[in-house]
Fold:
Amino acid sequence: MEFLKIKGGIPLKGTVQAAGAKNAITKMLVASLMSDKKCLFHNVPNIVEVATTVELCRQIGSHIEWDQDAKTLSIQTKELSSSYIPQKFSGINRIPILMIGVLLGRTREDIIVPTAGGCKIGKRPVDFHIQALEKLGATIEYRKMQKEGAYFAHAHEGLQGALITLPYPSVGATENTLLAACRAKGKTLIQGAAMEPEIIDLILFLQKLGANISIESDRSILVEESKTFYEVEHTVIPDRIEVASLALAAISTKGHVFIQGANQNHLLSFLHKLRKVNAGFRIHETGIEFFHQGPLQGGLLLETNVHPGFLTDWQQPFAVLLTQAQGISIIHETVYENRFGYLEVLKDMGAEVELLTDCLGTTPCRFHGHPYLHSALIKGPTPLKGKIIEIPDLRAGFAYVMAALLAPEESSLHPLHYLDRGYEQLDKKLQTLGAQIQRCSSPSSSTRLLEDMSLNIGKTP
Structure:
């Protein structure tokens, strides 16, 4: 078993490079399947989520060359060798479901795709995906296969453009509909679409590829049938979630970190909240520096929302920051109903947190009147103490890393596959900033070591 051993209480200082966005490159790899042309990507992060997507594409005939040191990746799918995604990919992440949209436009054959997975942070239904694809002319059926289910889809007569109105600006449903619409006959108008930076990056890539796409002023995307495609060279945008995570870790530890490649345009609502709590940052041509400039001020109302609102994946590390801010702050989660499970561990580490089912905010919330603990009161500042922690999902995992960086005692975190899904060599990046963090692996003695650490936590040497 691999685990992270962290001894906190050290300000993070130095310079790091922002990695390419996980939620952009994985979707563009899928989008490349639309044509038989070669696509070359730069700034590709070396993370498990990319490796998994690469393997998915190879399963159906993609030729891929990935230089992890140079952060470049080329992909070309001259022919589909299969339209069946094996069951071993069932539940592994959210990428297989996106294969339906792109494959419907590439083949008239039957398509079999396993069920979607990812972090357990609340319901992430694919109903919006299926309803939109069916409006374009697809036939989709869910069937049980072995222990897991799978989606069987086809469009034997091809896809036909249509008016698609999404009930909620779902990122995944927008992407799936967009990929299918590019090769549907006629025109498709997607209303109520998500407009995250990663989706804009996907649209820019598709335009280079040959897609005929325009963005309307009312969260609508107009897509016309594409018949001619071109080779593409594209640089992946920086990962705004990693940038925010490292920024919050720097500020909360009273440090000073410059993140090369950080893009202000992708961080407007995040930077606004930093100003509200008296956290420091300076914008530069090549990146952003983040620093502690004095006592952090609480009393913040933070509400998650779809872009351009405050990203739901930013709220976990921001919650840790608020444990170090003076006063009571509120986080109102409006995207996922089960996103606050990680706060119980923070409470065990010393945070003062109360969870409520009430909507403690001004944003209209689809969880209003439901028994979901989706509002949190956080009182600070409170010292945090070390702990042995089991990581339940990707973003909670970083919140725990950040909390461990604040605790003067030693902490241990496991398993690491969640962190490895979305953060590129996180332990090494933090080491370059001065953190006492180490990735350990000792299958024969790990259990005993963790027990010894548990006994020693809280003791002064």
